[in-house]
Amino acid sequence: MSKRNFILLIIVLVVAVVVILGFLYFRQGTTSPEDTNQGTNFVSTFNPFGNGTTSPGGTTSPADVSGYQPPAQGANIKLKKVSSMPVAGFGVLVKERLKDVPIVPITTEDGTPPKTVVTPPLTEFAPALRYVDRITGNIYQTFADKIEERRFSTTVIPKIYEAYFGNKGESVVMRYLKTDGKTIETFVGSLPKEYLGADTTPDNEIKGSFLPEDIKDVSISLDASSIFYLFNIGDNTVGTTLNLSNNKKAQIFDSPFTEWSSWWPNNKMITLTTKPSSGVPGYMYAIDLNSKNLSKIFGGINGFTTLASPSGKLVLYGNNNLSLSVYHTDTNVPNLLGVRTLPEKCVWGKKNNVVYCAVPKIIDVGQYPDAWYQGEVSFGDRFWKIDIEDGNATMVADPTTINAREEIDGIKLALDEGENYLFFINKKDSFLWELELK
Description:
The protein is mainly β and about 450 residues long. Helix content is about 10%, strand content about 40%. It has a four-stranded antiparallel beta sheet, with no helix packed on it. A four-stranded antiparallel beta sheet has the order 2-5-6-7, with no helix packed on it. The protein has a four-stranded antiparallel beta sheet with strand order 8-9-10-11, with no helix packed on it. Keywords: Membrane, Transmembrane, Transmembrane helix.
């Protein structure tokens, strides 16, 4: 080949390459409707093993025997937002109220104008809620079946972090940080009584007193008549009970170990579980309220969290994989429930045979429960009813199918006395919700 022809061949090849590259360059600015690669992470685009955002084995869910179907458009919505503001905590109580009595017209035989007969006022008892505005510390209340939010108090305690109600809703415990941003204050207040048929005022003042500073943990008794709290004295942790009716205190616990989470399931025992971490074995103990003795229940489980039943014979517990199990304290036998969630996202039924749980649909890879406690991850939950005796599970609600704009990470679950309602707080924004169960 002559030198001239060789140079022409080189020029043709260069022009061809430039044309092809130019075509590809301008073509990539147009995305076809089928294109699903979003963003510019080229490593993840070509990674055949995925992006590592799902947990090993996927999310374990119980066998759904409910036949649950999303409600039809326009159907009666049983999942409702109760509060109009973020709340620090709530209490469930039973309140008496007047029934709506119709006025019945009566026509007389002689043709005289009809008279009216009004029956004496009738009353009924209904589940109600009281809750604390997280920003102002004001208390609000409503009935569960007729959500009509009314302010109950005007006492201002800004930035409440935790709140508990006891003594049939007539006592409140509020916890918040002092202005130094470090010291924990715990205020115990008494609420004025409400009288049936009397005019109510939203300007009630909450009067009370303060407990020792820097209380590390608080739990309330099953009947809500007392609280148990832990605080440090020197190098030791002290546990004290407080009767909310008469303010009587009693020290029942003392330990050189300072990291505890408490739970008061019945009037015979208080459970203490070492605070959990993914890589640290945890243990559960129980204080006998009669003898004041401390006994070990079980443990040695990483990421260990617990929730004892009202009888104290069953314990829901989780591990660092968020696998939920139930432990039988009388036989020392554990049973896996086939659900991945945390015990503190559950509540026991009063007969100890069922639990209601907020169960995440997807659990990303992470160090649990640390990542959830620290707010590094947030869940989108469905609500399940699990029968402890036969292991059957029923999905009672999927919030994303009921309220498409709401994703709920449920915490602080509670039931009313008749177990007709499930109440909870959405950890994402601290709003109070209710789910009608029947």
